[in-house]
Amino acid sequence: MPLAVNHCGNFVNLASVLNILLINEGQDPPAAPSPFARISRRVMTDVNNVLSLSAVRMKDPEWINPKIIAFDLDCTLWPFWVDTHVTPPFHKNADGTVLDARKRHVEFIPGVPDILKELHRRGIKLAAVSRTGEIAGAKSLLKLFDFEKYFSHIEIYPGCKVAHFSKIHRETNVAYEDMMFFDDEFRNIADIKKLGVFTIYCPDGIEAKVVDSSLIDFDKSRSKRS
């Protein structure tokens, strides 16, 4: 039976995991654990990771959404580093499972397709932003997981993510203050927060309830309502 690759902890013993931390109020992050221990056991069992934000609230004419929501890839949309824990090239079997070159199953974090689909349905532009050096592998997974269709911007290349966001800003003319960004690495959050982007540190990967609460917080931060 092939080895399943479905969370970073497959490669080490998980001693502990971090809870999701939002840093938009200026909180410092906790001491960083091993980078391989960032994805909690919830990725194995969470079958309810879907957006639940009130449809009534979303119809409020004064509701303010981000114009662009950007997602990191490694350990944010899928629970591994594409340049380290899996082996490209990837392919999809007839049954829909994705395998790497060593015939190991490669999976995304549960609920991610529903999150992307719902945000896209709401008319919010989505961006994939990654600094991996395994560019071809990351793009291949976006296509094989059927995520590619949701992203209007795909910026995958090594280096500080300020360059990625600067390109998106130039191409769209969307203000940084109208963008939202999810990432599991604090260094990226710290860099992008300085631009004025609404940033969410998610060391356990993306989760629907965090997206929901972040949309609410974004509206509150941009709204003139008391």
Structure explained in plain terms:
By secondary structure, this protein is α/β, with parallel strands linked by helices. The chain is 28% helix and 15% strand. It is built from 7 helices and 9 strands; from the N terminus they run E-H-H-E-E-E-E-H-E-H-E-H-E-H-E-H. The chain has helices spanning 42-45, 55-58, 112-121, 135-144, 161-172, 186-193, 208-222, and strands at residues 4-5, 68-71, 91-92, 98-99, 105-106, 125-130, 151-156, 179-183, 198-201. A 5-stranded parallel sheet has the order 7-6-2-8-9, with helices on both faces. The chain has a 4-stranded mixed sheet with strand order 1-5-4-3, with no helix packed on it. The longest helix is centred in the C-terminal third of the chain and has 15 residues, at 208-222. It is globular. The model is unreliable at 1-24 and 29-47 (pLDDT under 50). Pfam families: Acid_PPase (PF12689). One of its GO terms (molecular function) is acid phosphatase activity. This is Magnesium-dependent phosphatase 1.
Number of strands: 9
| Cα end-to-end separation | 58 Å
Low-confidence stretches: 1-24, 29-47
How do the SSEs run, as a string of H and E? EHHEEEEHEHEHEHEH
Count of helix runs: 7
Query: How would you write the strand order of the largest sheet?
Result: 7-6-2-8-9
Query: Helix- and strand-based class?
Result: alpha/beta
Strand content: 5-15%
Residues in helices, as a percent range: 25-40%
Radius of gyration: 17 Å
The 3D shape can be described as: globular
Largest sheet: 5 strands, parallel
Mean pLDDT: 81
